[in-house]
Amino acid sequence: MTSPYGRPPSFTPSLETTVAAERLKRLIVSGEVNDPDLVRRGTRLELLFCSSLLASPTYLWGPGLRMEREWRNLTETFLPWNRIAPALRRLIAVSLLYPPPSDPLVPFPSWPDFLQRCSLITSSSNPALLLRSLLADEELRRRWLFTLFLPKEHGGGFHRYPRQQEFIHQWLVNQRALAGGQISCLDAACGSGEGSWELAALCRGCGFLPHEVTIHGSSLDPLELFAAAHADFPHDPPRQREYRRIIAPVTAAGFMNRIRFTQEELAEPRDSADRYDLILCNGLLGGPMLHNPRRMERVVAGLVQRLRPGGLLLAADRFHEGWDKLTPKEEREALLGRCGVKIMKIGEGIGGRAINN
């Protein structure tokens, strides 16, 4: 994937405001966005909105009101989402300095559903007003983009897999005794990075020194990588404060420079000399974002190839309901077995030890 970096974005963590600001300028357009096409779309949306006010028999949904089916159906009749979404997609495309890794508007069935997600960004039901505000206001546009690409319902947060962490802790204790104090970990599909920082905390708690530890986190979304590397959530200050509080002991102990967050598509072949003792792939395999059998097998096979002999591959999913519905546990375990993983009891999720490399 091309980017203004000339290569996939890759960040070492930093809590310096100036460093974060400079890196964000290479991901999101600065200043006012001037796009004649969006201006024309805004004019059409203004006419559509005014027509809906004249035709609708009741008020439109707004922030603070409970979402009901009637609100959704009524709005779809007079202010249909398929008339609004194209302008917002265009705005996303011209606001980012890299190709969007996904379409964040897909989950929304209607304009009120979108407004509910963005209630902290706008209090108006007028899509034209929102569009004009986002074009003109860089800070508002930045918070809006983070709201779309890093929503709370994607499951970000610490301490999601406590039993998995207990297993990793004991494994790290044994690994330190056996491997002479060197450990290398990959948090594949790391999202906003909580799992990567937790790996660093576990290594620290098991007696590893910073120079003995290498931790890589990878995600397809550069905004996730940015948030992970800088503990920076422009759309959610409480989350940012809590994130920084949790990682403070790890950063104070000198582990910050032993972590790197890099963009990658796990389903694509990867030529890399990096090999890992432990790979996590939480919240991805078998869920709604990755459940196609062939694509899953490519991902798992690729991850296994990146393990050192005897290395561990662990996967869990606590926040995707499709985890068991789309790909039952037996199928996931069979997949890992075909890719050269000997299944182990790990307390949470699935996983095991590489036997074919």
Could you describe the 3D structure shown?
The protein is α/β, with parallel strands linked by helices and about 350 residues long. It has two domains: about 30-150, no CATH class; about 160-355, Vaccinia Virus protein VP39 (Rossmann fold, 3-Layer(aba) Sandwich), CATH 3.40.50. The protein has 14 helices and eight strands. The protein has helices at about 15-25, 35-55, 70-80, 80-95, 110-115, 125-135, 140-150, 160-180, 195-205, 220-230, 235-250, 295-305, 320-325, 330-340; strands at about 10, 185-190, 215-220, 260-265, 275-280, 305-315, 340-345, 350-355. Strands 1-4-3-2-5-6-8-7 form an eight-stranded mixed β-sheet, with helices on both faces. Strand 7 (about 340-345) and strand 8 (about 350-355) form a beta hairpin. Helix 2 (about 35-55) packs antiparallel against helix 6 (about 125-135) and helix 8 (about 160-180) crosses helix 9 (about 195-205). The longest helix has 20 residues, at about 35-55. The radius of gyration is 22 Å and the shape is elongated. The protein starts with 9 loop residues before the first strand and ends with a strand.
